[in-house]
Amino acid sequence: MPEPDLQYLAELATQLRVDSVRAAAAAGSGHPTSSMSAADLMAVLFARHLRYDFHEPDNPANDHVILSKGHASPLLYSLYKAAGVIDDEELLTFRKRGSRLEGHPTPRLPWVDVATGSLGQGLPVGVGVAMAGRLERMPYRVWVLCGDSELAEGSIWEAAEHAGGEGLANLTAIVDVNRLGQRGPTRHGWDTGAYARRFAAFGWHTVEIDGHDPGEIDYALQDACKTRRRPTVILAKTRKGEGVLEVENREGAHGKPIKDADKAVDELGGPRDVPVTVHEPHGAAEPYRFGGGALELPAYEVGEQVATRAAYGEALAALGAACGEVVALDGEVADSTKTEVFAQRFPERFFEMYIAEQQLVAAAVGMQIRGWTPYAATFAAFLTRAHDFIRMAGVSRASIRLVGSHAGVSIGEDGPSQMGLEDLAMMRALYGSTVLYPCDANQTAALITEMADVEGVSYLRTTRGTTPVIYPPGERFPVGGSRVLRQSSSDRATIVAAGVTVHEALAAAGELEAAGLPVGVIDLYSVKPVDSAALAEAATTTGNLITVEDHRLEGGLGDAVLDAVSELGPRVVKLAVTELPGSAKPEEQLADAGIDRHAIVAAVKRLL
Fold first, then answer.
1. Beta strand 520-523 with 483-486: parallel, antiparallel or unpaired?
2. For the domain 6-268, what is the CATH code?
3. How far is CA 363 from CA 141, 353, 375, in A?
4. Which of the following is catalytic: 357, 422, 450, 537?
5. What class does CATH assign to 304-469?
6. For all residues of the chain together, what is the average pLDDT?
């Protein structure tokens, strides 16, 4: 590389350090030292290898940059300033109320694909973006800046194995090996070879460099672009706080502004105004999309016995035929979730993610960045492994659709390790989430299609065993709705149920009516948002609500109902799973948990 180019890159990197120091000083908080170690890496990437049109962030040919070490946000914002898309005034609003420049990046900025800051997530999401690139036959590259501390996260190695196994050559991980974590040295310090051996074992091309040498960085990035049939990891040895003696390679400087910021800026040579011109993508390209057609959902006869998980598989395949943007991901249980129906019909749009639930969710997040409509399925119980990824998807305002099968004690003999009993609470607590729990096959099919247009994280819970079809085919079930299945002016209470307990509630209502105790029944298939109007009417007309759910007492259907009607003052009795189940037949499990028809009858009689 010519000497003038090397000098320019060094000047640009120094400016990024200066602006990182200034931004953190203005905020009185932040991570300038973590930004300073990676400044040379990102200066060379932006100036020489990145292909991105900042004036058209939705250009499908743009490369993708994911800051997995999201705490180094001052570096990212300093790059945006150098690229001319924010000014110095906005840079100094870092971490202030109302600023787009939050402590960790979020898609409030149009150039940020995904929220980061929960370490170990950027690379798994990058895998999903790279998978999308292969599917849509686009030449863009995915660049992920990781910190060495986050390489202790298991999710990193889920991503490494999947990317290596799939040969995602459009993916490059740049690891800032600055040796120091939050409280002291990392496990491997500057031993880049230790990391290289691990990545190489998963089939990655590895490059070890001096992360402060622009020439070596440039060579490594070129090498990544030329590598075929496997992803590349660049392991860059750097010094935390590079350029400022007070903090350079010193413990105790993580996550705080430099004490004497003015002195540090002077030591770095003062402020600069070095612009970076990021090259735009080569030519125009349109992502490949699959064709669609008319939607023909499966239809089930009233009275037929069908598992809602089976209806999910058939409905997803029908939706896939109608909408070419639909993709399906599964965690090696497709024969149980019934995603296998989609896989058989559309193998190119089905992605086996194996027993790696964090990568399963992260891949869905990555694919929706590129405009795909992902449905990701596994057992409801196992989605808890990926809860932080789901939580961060909410922060990212990502639109993903999750399906949890084998929910509740009604799965039967498999026992508590397989029972999703906390999933409704987990999903309800997420920002902007939608939570659905159908009770029969036709309702499931309708809700699967509703989910395609839902923004944010949506979740649908399915049941292992068969349940009777109670709704005729073709009916709509809008998100936020409910169905009043029994109601009369003489009702003395209303039973609110969802999923498998709807059928128990209907049976209980029949028995109570025969005993001269008429009650209403509401199918609250939309657990979030709830149908507040229907619940309020039931609360004010009967004054007594009994909620029944195949879920833990805390945070599920009962709490959703109570939240909606508490100010109206009805009596609310919540029936839910409170003990630790064992192995038993499904009907025995419902009885033991106190949520079957007999338990409902007894609860109504006690209440009245």
1. antiparallel
2. 3.40.50.970
3. 16, 9, 11
4. 357
5. alpha beta
6. 97
